[in-house]
Amino acid sequence: MSTEVKICGLSTIETLDAALDAGADHVGFVFFDKSPRNIGLEQGAALVRHARGSATTVALVVDPSSERLDEIMSVVKPDAIQFHGSESPAVLNFFHARWGEAEIWKAIPVSSTEDLGALAVYLSITNRILFDARPPKGAERPGGHGQVFDWSILRDLDPELGFMLSGGLTPDNVADAIRLTHASAVDVSSGVESAPGIKDIGKIRAFIQAVRTVAREKVKL
């Protein structure tokens, strides 16, 4: 099965179209004011409408209030919410009870095998788990730093879990990451940018092409 691709932190129709035309399976939009990729609700709504039916639309949030979640779901109307902070299972269950039609994705920061213990907490209440590099000490945001973690930590995980790999992925290293982890999906943001928050169309295309190359290798085997 082909590895799925998510291009996150999109903010313009031009770069969104580049991702969709190149074959992205999921497109992500950031609603976190400390991120250089943060966008407003109306801007997000326009991008989600544009992508509807072509890819899964994902709204990334970090420890949001219930009021903020209601705003995003009511105005933006994404297919999924990606919880990228320290949200508890109770928060995710509350969201599911209120917005049951939306998928729940949860990012887990990883720097050692001990971090995989969070799987037991979140796996049963999410549609997808995303493993991201643990942010640098003192960082104001939990992701988008372009840092890679030790992928071998995930080597023995069952691919049937359907986990997504993130953290420092680029067009140059994503193929190796997939070969080592057997991740069913990969997520990229800073790795396809020319500057923080500025997506590079050429890098978007190169990233997706690199992922598809691994899929063709599997077919030959």
> The biggest beta sheet, please?
8 strands, parallel, barrel
Amount of helix: 25-40%
C-alpha termini separation: 12 Å
Query: How many structural domains does the protein architecture include?
Result: 1
Spatial shape: globular
- Predict the CATH topology: TIM Barrel
Radius of gyration, in Å, reads: 16 Å
Assembly context of the chains? single chain
Mean pLDDT across all residues, rounded? 93
Level-2 CATH architecture: Alpha-Beta Barrel
Low-confidence stretches: none
Q: Write out the CATH superfamily name.
A: Aldolase class I
Strand arrangement in the largest pleated sheet: 1-2-3-4-5-6-7-8
How many helical stretches? Answer: 7
Assess the beta-strand content as a share of residues.
15-25%
Q: What is the element string, with H for helices and E for strands? A: EHEHEHEHEHEEHEEEH
Strand count: 10
Assigned CATH class: Alpha Beta
Structural class estimated from helices and strands: alpha/beta
Structural notes for this entry:
Helix 2 links the parallel strand 2 (26-30) and strand 3. With 221 residues, the protein is α/β, with parallel strands linked by helices. The protein has a single domain (4-220), classed as Aldolase class I (TIM Barrel, Alpha-Beta Barrel). It is built from seven helices and ten strands. Strands 1-2-3-4-5-6-7-8 form an eight-stranded parallel barrel, surrounded by five helices. It is 33% helix and 20% strand. The model has no long low-confidence stretch (mean pLDDT 93).
Q: Which terms would index this structure?
A:
N-(5'-phosphoribosyl)anthranilate isomerase, 20% strand, globular, RibuloseP-bd_barrel, 7 helices, EC 5.3.1.24, 221 residues, TIM Barrel, isomerase, 8-stranded parallel β-barrel, alpha/beta, two-stranded antiparallel ribbon
